[in-house]
Design goal:
53% helix, seven-stranded mixed beta sheet, alpha/beta, Nucleotidyltransferase, domain 5, disordered C terminus, 3 domains, 540 residues
């Protein structure tokens, strides 16, 4: 073909492309009998269309049974299918190796099939399953609905309190950028797996109260509260968790002072979970005497009904993680207790917004009062379980040949083949009969396996009895407010100054006091200041 003729052909393809909207390269491939891009892609697929369809049906069946398949297992399943297909080739050629699909193959797989959708799941306790708590949730809305219907209970006097645990350092592995010639093994930030408990309380009108922080320690340290946090309260326990005394202190010295004036003598509604420390006799007496209506959530329902868990604590921990990462970028090598109040205070201001708080109450079905916000999730899950795929009876098909999926369908296809091939000899008929028998056996085994899987799924869903032991809190916590800690620190500084002055005077007079005598005199002075509750705190 001459150069002039080639230019003429290219020009004609360009003219046709402008008139039809089809790319000129596509027109050229069609004119020269070249395979299309789609055909090339189909030939390069890891699966045949039938195998991919079978895998899709398998994934959907697992999801219908309540056990969705993790995406990371798709590659191993694909390898199993291809190995089974390629077993005959490996017999003839032992050097043939079947490799798994690429790491991005699962994403392409579920994107090719719109009936599939990747979703991130969160692990929850088995007792929090919807089938176990639906009756509890309905009963809860019946009870709380009658309380909220009382005209004496106003929106601004409804509160929810809960504890949340915060790790001092919550950094995971980070991807960083370095020079391509940098061969050093860089180390990340040192992690301290210390859990600090914070008791938070939010109101239905979008406000939040000052927290109570529980340190996992035996005594308070002045270096832990260098960041000014007026109105905050701090406690210490050996485990870092709350107990009965701290719960009583929180109601008396944190909740009541911050809500009493706003209530103006009207009743206050306090919603909390069923943790044992919230229902002690002392707490109930105080609530009864001060017109505080204590409403306990049903067990194992806080992830659905508690506003703090539903819409506040998640953005709080996200904001705290961001503050930790920012501190690490600033050069902080280790996140410890001295950094917590500063980082947590900034995270609270970012997460405890009126919008987030009101959204949490709305998602819990309380304000506005709408139990369907929560109950519709149980109805949707129940309808999915009850939904069955109808099995169409075998009918005489048309000239279009479909892949049989039951033994009856295969028998019908066999009869159609026999009608189309009346002139088959005996050998061909015996081979067709053998194929029919093999298919019946395969379909029967498949039905037995599906039934076995169904029985196993039902058995796994049955409730099991588990023994549990209660947690015993050893010791008693000493609770102090931020203002008390500041005052105690001032008293301690005064004591240190006076001790230094006495040492100088004693040294000048030739009478140096011993260490035990100094300690005994310091304890006498602290007792004289009426700070006996903080003796252990100041004995550093």
């Amino acid at each position: 073909m001459s150069a002039a003729h080639q230019r003429l052909v290219r020009t004609s393809y360009a003219i046709q492309s402008r008139s039809t909207g089809i790319p000129a390269s596509t027109l050229w491939r069609r004119a020269n009998n070249r395979p299309s891009v789609a055909d090339k892609a189909a030939n390069q697929q890891y699966f045949t269309p039938q195998e991919e369809h079978a895998l899709v049906e398998y994934v959907l069946r697992l999801a219908d049974n309540g056990y969705p398949l993790p995406v990371k297992f798709l590659r191993s399943l694909a390898l199993i299918i291809v190995r089974q297909r390629s077993s005959n080739f490996q017999i003839t050629d032992p050097s043939l190796k079947v490799r798994p699909p690429g790491k991005n193959w699962p994403q392409g797989f579920y994107r090719r099939h719109p009936q599939l959708k990747a979703r991130r799941l969160r692990a929850i306790d088995w007792k929090r399953n919807g089938r176990h708590i639906e009756d509890k949730v309905r009963h809860w809305f019946d009870i709380i609905g009658r309380e909220l219907a009382d005209p004496a209970i106003l929106l601004e006097n409804v509160y929810n309190m809960d504890e949340t645990g915060v790790l001092l350092s919550v950094l995971n592995s980070l991807k960083v950028l370095v020079s391509k010639d940098d061969l050093r093994k860089h180390r990340g930030t040192t992690v301290k797996r210390t859990l600090v408990t914070a008791i938070e309380c939010i109101s239905a009108d979008g406000r939040f109260l000052h927290p109570l922080i529980i340190w996992p320690a035996a005594t308070h340290r002045s270096s832990w509260t260098t960041h000014p946090t007026p109105g905050w309260h701090f406690a210490c326990t050996k485990t870092g968790y709350t107990n009965t005394e701290i719960s009583l202190y929180w109601v008396e010295h944190v909740f009541d002072p911050q809500t009493r004036d706003r209530a103006g003598g009207r009743p206050r509604l306090l919603i909390c979970d069923g943790f044992g420390t919230h229902e002690s006799l002392e707490v109930m007496k105080f609530c009864f005497a001060n017109r505080i209506i204590l409403c306990r959530l049903p067990s194992h329902t806080s992830h659905k009904l508690q506003p703090c868990d539903v819409g506040v604590f998640s953005p709080l921990k996200t904001a705290y993680r961001a503050q930790v990462e920012q501190a690490c970028r600033a050069g902080v090598s280790t996140i410890g207790k001295p950094h917590f109040t500063y980082l947590y205070d900034r995270a609270r201001k970012e997460a405890f917004t009126p919008r987030n708080i009101r959204s949490a109450w709305s998602r819990s079905g309380l304000f506005p009062f709408d139990p369907s916000r929560v109950l519709r999730e149980f109805q949707a899950s129940r309808s999915e379980i009850q939904t069955t795929i109808p099995v169409e009876p075998p009918t005489v098909s048309s000239n279009i040949c479909h892949t049989p999926n039951t033994s009856d369908h295969f028998a019908l296809l066999r009869s159609e083949v026999e009608q189309d091939t009346q002139n088959l000899d005996g050998v061909c008929k015996r081979r067709l009969q053998t194929l029919s028998h093999a298919s019946e056996k395969v379909f029967a085994e498949r039905a037995l396996l599906l039934e076995e899987n169904r029985i196993l799924f039902e058995q796994n869903n049955e409730k099991t009895c588990r023994q549990s032991s209660g947690l015993t809190v050893v010791g008693h916590a000493k609770v102090m407010s931020y203002e008390d800690i500041v005052e105690a620190q001032k008293k301690r500084d005064m004591t240190v100054t006076e001790q230094a002055t006495r040492k100088k005077r004693s040294k000048a007079g030739g009478k140096l006091l011993s260490r035990s005598e100094e300690k005994r005199k310091a304890e006498q002075e602290i007792q004289a200041w009426d700070m006996s509750d903080y003796c252990l705190v100041l004995d550093l």
